[in-house]
Amino acid sequence: MSLEANQSKFTVEDIVARFARRDDSLSSKFSYFATLPIAEEDLRQYLHDPIAAISPAIIDGCPA
């Protein structure tokens, strides 16, 4: 039997619904979910700084 036959398939909506209550907000439109603790320096480098660099026009076009 193949490994694929035993794996459950989730949609993005399933994953969002499952973890939405456990996420950390970066702004009103962006949040993240981490399964392991992340160092503050890594959060800044990989999440906070890139989100801050996004043009407000692009952010306004994102769904809330």
What are the defining features of this structure?
64 residues, mainly alpha, two-stranded antiparallel ribbon, globular
Structure description:
The chain is mainly alpha-helical. The protein has one domain (3-61). Helix content is 48%, strand content 6%. It contains 4 helices and 2 strands, in the order ααββαα. It has helices at 3-6, 12-19, 40-52, 56-61; strands spanning 24-25, 31-32. The longest helix is centred in the C-terminal third of the chain and has 13 residues, at 40-52. The N and C termini lie far apart (42 Å).
List the SSEs and their pairings:
Blueprint: H1 3-6, H2 12-19, E1 24-25, E2 31-32, H3 40-52, H4 56-61
Antiparallel strand pairs: 1-2
Give a summary of the structure in a few sentences.
The chain is mainly alpha-helical. It has helices spanning 3-6, 12-19, 40-52, 56-61, and strands at residues 24-25, 31-32.
**SSE ordering:** HHEEHH
For the residues shown, what is the average pLDDT?
A: 82
Main sheet specs: 2 strands, antiparallel
CA-based gyration radius: 16 Å
As a percent range, the share of helical residues equals: 40-55%
Shape: globular
Q: What number of structural domains do the residues give?
A: 1
Q: Low-confidence runs (pLDDT<50, min 5 residues)?
A: none
| Beta-strand segment tally | 2
Q: Biggest sheet: strands side by side, in what order?
A: 1-2
Structural class: mainly alpha
Oligomer: single chain
Strand percentage: 5-15%
CA distance, first residue to last residue: 42 Å
Q: Please, how many helices? A: 4
